[in-house]
Amino acid sequence: MAESNPWTTRSNREVYANPWITVKENEVLNPSGNPGIYGVVHFVHQAVGVVPLAADGTTWLVGQYRYTTNAYSWEIPEGGARPGEASLVCAKRELREETGLTAETWTPIFSNLQTSNCVCDEVGHLFLAQGLTLGDAEPEETEELRLMRLPLSEAIAMALRGEIQDALSLIALFQMRCLGHG
């Protein structure tokens, strides 16, 4: 059941833009009717993540240094779907670029997840990739990646221990556990 919007937007203006995000500042009336501002970050790309699952029950994590958090991060292979690009097309590209893997079978495991809906409109899509073939990775120039192949159950255990903190990765790994994998 859809609820009505208790917010009133009086005006909005773009205060920043680059190829990946725009930031808008909105003058609003909040649900109590009082004036205020609300900043909204719009993501140009949609977030896409992949859990590659080999026949032996192993998966791959991608390690990289994340500039925004100033920390090293282990994650599932992931990236951003360009405007107008289907999330599955992006998932296939990102898996190949980051790991060198291609897959015969693709299964959506979570769609339209909201990564931080209090400040941004980013939407994410997660896939399970199976029937894997290993090739050469082709990372982007902004990516200095390490790969780790491990049992899916160990990747889930890493998430449970707090060793994986990326939201897409956590949701994907916990969803895999709920689906009876790992």
Which helices and strands appear, and what pairs or packs with what?
Blueprint: E1 8-17, E2 21-29, E3 35-43, E4 46-52, E5 58-66, E6 71-75, E7 78-81, H1 87-99, E8 101-114, E9 123-134, E10 146-151, H2 152-160, H3 167-178
Helix pairs in contact: 2-3
Tell me what you see in this structure.
Helices cover 19% and strands 47% of the residues. It is of the alpha+beta class. The chain starts with 7 loop residues before the first strand and ends with a helix. 24% of the residues are buried.
Q: Provide the helix percentage.
A: 10-25%
Number of beta-strand segments: 10
H and E string: EEEEEEEHEEEHH
Number of helices: 3
The CATH H-level superfamily of the largest domain is: Nucleoside Triphosphate Pyrophosphohydrolase
How much beta, percentage-wise? Answer: over 45%
Oligomer: single chain
Poorly predicted parts: none
